Amino acid sequence: MCCVFVDHAPVTKGVLGGLVLSSVTFNLPLSSYRGWFDFNYSTIFDQHNVLRYIGSRSVFLDPKDLLCASILLYHFRIFERRYGSRKFANFLFGTFFLSLLLELLIIFLAHRQELPLSHHPVGPFGPVFALLVPYFCDIPRVTVTHILGVPITGKSFTYIIGLQMAASSLESFILASCGLVAGLFYRSNLYKIQSILRIPSFISSLINKILGSLVASAVPKDEVPPMGATLELQRQQHIEQLEQQMAWAQLQPRPPEGNPFGFGLFGNGAARDRGEPARPVPVTAALPEEQIERMTEMGFDRDKVLQALRVANNNPSVAINILLQES
């Protein structure tokens, strides 16, 4: 599933492929080694076997958890397509370690209060549930129908899958909660956590050289843009396509006086016929400094913000779309 349908999302494809392969491996041919992923309080705090704990958060051994996590990651591939593979990988990396720290804190406190947890589910619950935070905040909500007065949206199925995964046990619910808190913490960028917990450039380049050809998707010439799995995702993609078309349209110079219709598709045919470069669109008015600061607070460099505003003729929404496409 992950290799066929997850196009143009190499990180999602690699994560899904790794989870499926590791789960099948340790459930069938290497089932006798499942004990590698068992741990308790003594394993972590007395024996200091941190590698076993990190390994237990890297593979799903329960087929139900694997199925639910795969469905959620498949829905969340929209974020890799919108923000880029590198930002998406940094989000997974950062929320993975944030959720680990929260889980360790809960295990320590539970032991101090003499409330030992009966068992510890295996799998990367943290980053999977952390993705529910941008999914809730960034994907628009469109009501499809009502059941007993409760609005049902296209996103409801995703939330039900997450609830099914979290409701397996008290420990699973705790892991899911740690993932949600990690997602909120990373999204708010408290203490510049996004700059601290990120994959180094040389490591991402090395991984791309080693695994890039395995997870890359060929782009057909006559490709139809992939649409999201829910109505909200399709609507958001449609809006993005319209904004991108607006950005390209504003890049074209206006036709000269005496030629109101211009020549060519964008009214710049005369300049192309003469072999002249396209003239930049003049900026009509300066954007308030407050709006520029808002865009820089979103994580974009000020120089790139000013450049995108010049290209977008001081249209903030178009400029933000250009910055997201370049990131």
From TrEMBL:
Species: Ridgeia piscesae (Tubeworm)
GO molecular function: serine-type endopeptidase activity
Matching SUPFAM superfamilies: Rhomboid-like, UBA-like
Pfam families attached to this UniProt entry: UBA
Residue stretches making up the UBA domain: 286-326
Cellular location(s): Membrane
Keyword Metal-binding applies: no
Protein name, per record: UBA domain-containing protein
Transmembrane regions: 88-110, 159-186
PROSITE patterns registered for this protein in UniProt: UBA (PS50030)
UniProt cross-references to InterPro entries, sorted A to Z: Rhomboid-like_sf, UBA, UBA-like_sf
